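P.,

For your records, the input lines for the assembly:
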Amino acid sequence: MEAIVNRSSSTKDRILGAAEVLFAQRGFEGASLRQLTAAAGVNLAAVNYHFGSKDKLVEQVFRRRLDTLNAQRLAALGNARESGNDRLEDVLDAFIRPALKLSHEDSGSLFMRVLARAFAEHDDSLRQFLSENYGHVMRQFTAEFARLLPHLSKEELYWRIDLVTGALTHAMSGFGMIQRKQDVSEGVHLEQTIQHLIRFAVAGLTHP
Amino acid sequence: MEAIVNRSSSTKDRILGAAEVLFAQRGFEGASLRQLTAAAGVNLAAVNYHFGSKDKLVEQVFRRRLDTLNAQRLAALGNARESGNDRLEDVLDAFIRPALKLSHEDSGSLFMRVLARAFAEHDDSLRQFLSENYGHVMRQFTAEFARLLPHLSKEELYWRIDLVTGALTHAMSGFGMIQRKQDVSEGVHLEQTIQHLIRFAVAGLTHP
DNA sequence: CGTATGCTCAAACGATCGTTTGAACGCCTG
DNA sequence: CAGGCGTTCAAACGATCGTTTGAGCATACG
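Structure tokens returned:
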């Protein structure tokens, strides 16, 4: 396998980059450390030296992206509340925009695939890791939705959030037929996509 | 590993049943033939004898459920068109009801997890198999949606179908927090869930 | 200069993977 | 009863997995 990452970056970063690509393509079990280290252009033993084990590497792949992603989400939610722009659209924007911006970066879309895989694989230790480290973000947004949709029962609200989450996960990981249009700039396309998802989510959350 | 299936059924059926369970729990690569045959209470070599290979077994696991599921979907769609009940709600009912009925059967919900995994794993041969064998169903429903939502551009329509599909896949595979209520009968719960999903899908597809 | 320290390397470890093999089994048919 | 056939069985195959090892290398510090 050919090296696919920048030779000038550090060994740790090259491993993380190659891991993100291969985990997205072949899954956590499907991507072997031999494929991974070959793609990163490092020695096989480097993963266990720098990360301890393959499982720890998986966690670091998530941490590298999710730490900043969820910090941005909470910051955007805080800004919305402070400035009084805390309609449903604004809360959804705070949730969706950071994720979509990431997925439009160089290899960010691959990470979204990795994240979708983590949903599909009901691996308990991985779910526990995600819940422990980032569960408070989802809880905070859920509380905000409950405040903005007071007429919905708790059960009804969970239903709708669950469906919206599924739609966003599915869309952002690029499963479907949606392709980026050729004749618009990156910034315009990103903004159009965000408005698309927000309008869809609003419709799903607010319908009678 | 303990046997988890009815000892009285045939070897082939016992393998298919155990495969569905283990593929849902551990994924296609994560479930080994040794775990699988042990759970089915059959010899290790039985899989290769009856199915040829592990990949062929995966295909048969899909076939056993999807053949009848998609036949029911097309039949329901045909009935709706004949009887004139072909509003958006009716088309969605034809699509959703057979899947939800399956997911409420004994081990049908496990199959829905398997199906969601197939979405997440971007395995080309598996996607090709599903597209070749069941792509015409999705195409027929898409055409029906296009007829009922003529004001939407093709791009817009695909967007919305994609989001709705993601929501349904996510919900039916039981990823989220949704649990069945204890105090209602099975039939009532099924009907409530169907109406839930249909209303959500209608809102997402028709919003301005 | 001598020697720690951090890192990389080839090689090997035991375990587990999907698959194949050839003998043994149960059962029906002639 | 004899023989063919479909099926099951324990055992082994080579390949690949994650991980460990110990030597070798470079750089920094006394």
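Two observations worth noting. DSSP finds nine helices and no strands in chain B. Residues 1-7 of chain B have pLDDT under 50 and may be disordered.

Regards
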